[in-house]
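Subject: sequence -> structure tokens, single chain

Hey, anyone have a minute? Need the predicted structure for the following. Not urgent.
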Amino acid sequence: MAWIVPQVILALPFAFAFGMYILAALRSNRTKPWPMYRTVCWLLGVLFAVIAVAGPLANLGHTDFVAHMLSHLLLGMLAPLLMILAAPMTLLLKSLSVPAARSLTRILRSWPSRILTHPIITSLLNIGGLWLLYTTNLYSLMHENTLLFLIIHFHIFAAGYLFTVSIIYIDPAPHRFSFLYRSIVLIISLAGHGVLSKMIYAYPPTGVPLDQAKLGGMLMYYGGDAIDMVIIFILCWHWFRATRPRTALTMSWK
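Reply:
Had a minute. Here:
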């Protein structure tokens, strides 16, 4: 019962984001139909994020490391990927008035936006944050401190979202980096994620039983690879399209 309030605090922003997305899609449909598959991606992304932070899985995650790791994959990897595929910034720009859209565009082109979407910065926030969580006492401390619990879970989602945004460009990206550059950063990040999962397997975080650490490490390794394969496919597909502009392609991820 003590964790109900933190779960509500974490789940409410996602519920609000879902409502705002639907309203924006309805407004967009007045002039041009918004793709249904993007709305479905947003719905699934929000759903997986809420499942990760509220409900039975979130409750179990306080005592079961495997459940916690599943929540981590949903909140930090799968939900961000699905929500990015929903192109929320494109929808927002279509829904805003011209002056508001220009103001938002100026924000997207600003230097803070460039820093927050730089692949190296986002990979440090994402992978570095996970190393800090699982190789220090942070994992055990967050279950004892509600504020720390909220901050860490917010960071997991935000870092995962920014990292994915910096690797695959679905929405407008004023600060673009080359495919080669993003691929190199992605490969290094995948290596860091894989090494960390093996570290967890061999050297459990503080307070985690060895059997749970082994299962959780395997889930992190193979589950993360499955989601990363989708990111790799999209990145390679965009790269192929960019280098073969005259090839007739019927499939599009953007």
